[in-house]
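Teaching assistant here, posting this on the class forum so everyone can see the example we discussed in section. The complex has two components, and the goal was to see what a joint structure prediction looks like when all of them are supplied at once.
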Amino acid sequence: MNEQEHASQLSALYDDELPAPQAELVVRRALKDPHLRDAWSRYSLIGAAMRGEPLAGLPGEDLAACVSARLAGEPAVAAMEPDVAATGEDGAGRSWARGAWGMAVAASVAAVSLLVLRAQAPGPQDAVQLAAVDAAVSAQPAAAAPAAPVAQPAARAAQPAGAQALAARSEPPSYTTPVDNSVPGQLINYVVAHSDVQASVVRFSPMSSVVSASYDPAEGAVDMSEAEIGAHR
Amino acid sequence: MSADAGDLGLVQRAQRGEKAAFDLLVRKYQHKVVKLVMRYLRDPADAEDVAQEAFIKAYRALPQFRGDSAFYTWLYRIAINTAKNAIVSRDRSPVEFDLDLQAVEESQMLQSRLADSATPERLLLTEEIRVTVNSAIDALPEDLRTAIVLRELEGLSYEEIAQAMDCPVGTVRSRIFRAREAIDRRLSEVFEGGLGRAEEMG
């Protein structure tokens, strides 16, 4: 095949009018032969001149040369991401892979969080103390209810609104966490006990409600009065 | 014959890491992209910068190109978005263009704006190229001229040109190639002479 035939095929390739098998050969040849590449550029220039387009590919001001120079410092796209054409992997497959990767990351974060929470949770001794407190708290309404069933509304009227809401939910009048020298453990107790007021608390700094609770290291307990609890609602 | 097969082959090669394949796509579409961008930006130099940027973005986005549309359709979308982003970032108002303008009017407008900022050497060379191409086309035999005009100006496929000229597709391919070769011969003379004159002027 002579040069004329190569150029003729290049012209047809330029117009996207060459059958795929031939196109592959001509592209391969053009990528190696600078004369064919220049001819390709001139075909582009001729068409642009005929259509009155701005001539961007003039010698010395070649836009393609500028782009090529800028891309010289770029990694090849094949190195950026797996080749779609070569792997035959479609977009849906890649989306699925991304989703699976995201789920794996989320699961890892959740597992680490669980481990951290467990490490900070009260130990067996604390659990016994908490159980004792729970038993005492649950016994209070049971004992008081039969004794003054009618007086309860009047007593509630005298209480602050927050305290009334607490009583309506059968919550204890005050919370006392057991003695523990580790502050994080006490804070967790507090947060767990007040999880129902989270919605109102989050309007402020997450730590603001914690700071407002009086913590006495000497006593080793956090006490919150009903009024204080109500103030957070 | 699949349309866009040539472009797709180049895209696939570029996706496999052959930058030279992408370079051929840039050479092919650079004029069209600059023309497109100039609808949004006043300054031709800005338009060329934005066109460059559009090609760089297209190269980086090549892994996402799946061939659902023709390459130039995809590229044009990137170019338009790049031009709009450039307008926003530079806080310039876009040129008010009626996209339905006749091609001749649009071309004249683009030429006048190019003339506003181009260097004398560039203007001279550009004008020489246009005159040479037009005179070369005028000098072509009727069948070659018709074939190249139907292809480059009307955008017809070889099959459509074959129907219009009542000849085989292979003949159309040959006529278009011969027309290009004839114009290219005249053009090469201008490049050599034009560049020489530009250096003398400088």
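For the discussion questions: The CA atoms of residues 27 and 33 of chain A lie 10 Å apart. The first helix of chain A runs from residue 3 to 14. Think about how each of these relates to the inputs above.
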